[in-house]
Each structure stands twice: as structure tokens, then as C-alpha cells.
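Changelog note: in this version the structure field was regenerated for every chain. One regenerated record is shown below for reference.
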Amino acid sequence: MILPFLFGDNRWSQWLNHIVFNDLWQIPKFCCDFCQKPAYEIWEQQDQVLVTWLQSTLSTPILSWMLGCVHSYEVWECIHKYFHNQTKATTRQLRTQLRSTTLGTKSMREFLSHLRVIADSLASVGSPIMLQEHVSMILEGLSSEYHSVIAIIESKFETQPLEQVEALLLAHVARLSSHLLNLPRSTSRTCKQPISCTRIKILWVS
């Protein structure tokens, strides 16, 4: 696969660009002058060796994109175009996942971890998200029971570090869990019903 050359060690990509495109502008022109013909034939042989080598690094699905490519620079441009389109599609998909991810039935740790995975994936394809955007996606994915901690986070003049935001949310979850465990048994059973907190208090007093 040519993928490591494009997204891995950038030196390989720079080297191939230098070989392919620098030689492209130095193609000996085929003309009636006999002295130019051997130079062109030597360049063409070298170019075809490079074409063969580039194609040998590609998988079968990608090779179908190379149809019609005669010279190495054409193969190289097709490779760039193919992976550029793939990267754009992946970026759109990941950003859609990022916007649609909510806490739902997941635990807080699972929710935060899932968002981190998406953020890391975006960074790996060259489209990293800013800290403010990451924090915003976290807060927008929370339910109404987290309004108090959301207000604390949003009240800060500057965006807090991601680790601090996650720590606040995990601490909030721990407090909620501790509070539920400490409630009287009758009140705990009442809390499982879809009624308001006022109703819970009335039942507890009575």
C-alpha cells in the first residue's frame, strides 16, 4: 500500500514528489534532432520503472483508479486525488458522529472515551478539532440532569482543559450515585417512578 508514504513518514512523499515532478519538467523533448532521441528513451525507461514500482505498492481497488495513467506523474496525481477524496469522506463521517454522539444510556466514562476516539481519528486524517469544539460537543451531548455542572463549566472565561472538564463531569456522576445510595429505601423506590422530586418529598414526609 502507498498509504504509509502519504500519511506516514513525510520524507517518502517529499522524495517521490521530487523524483516524479522534477523529472517531469526535465523531459527531453523528442524532436528531429537525433541527439535528443537517446535522452528521451532513457527518461522513458526510467519513468516506466517508476510507474511499475508505484503500481506494485497499490491494492487492487486503488489500481482501478489508475486506468489511463501512462507516466509516473499521472499515477502520482491519481494517488493523491484518491486519498484526498477518501480523507474528505472520512472527515465528514467522523464530524457527523461527533455532532450526533450523546450520553444516552452510556456511562459517563464511555461517553467521554467515545468522543476522544472520534477526536483522535479526526486528528489522524489531518482535521483536528479545537479544544473549545471538543468541550462544546461534550456539553451538548449531556442530558438536563447535568445543567448545574454545565453552567459551572460555561461560566469560566476561558475554556478549561479537557482533563479538567472530564474530571468535573465524573465527579458530578459520583455525587449523584452517592446521593441515590444514601436515600431511604422507600424514597429510592419512589425515585424509579417517572414523577417529580416534589412528589418524592411528599411521599417521604408522609
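Spot check on this record: The two ends are 72 Å apart (CA to CA). The CA atoms of residues 165 and 183 lie 28 Å apart.
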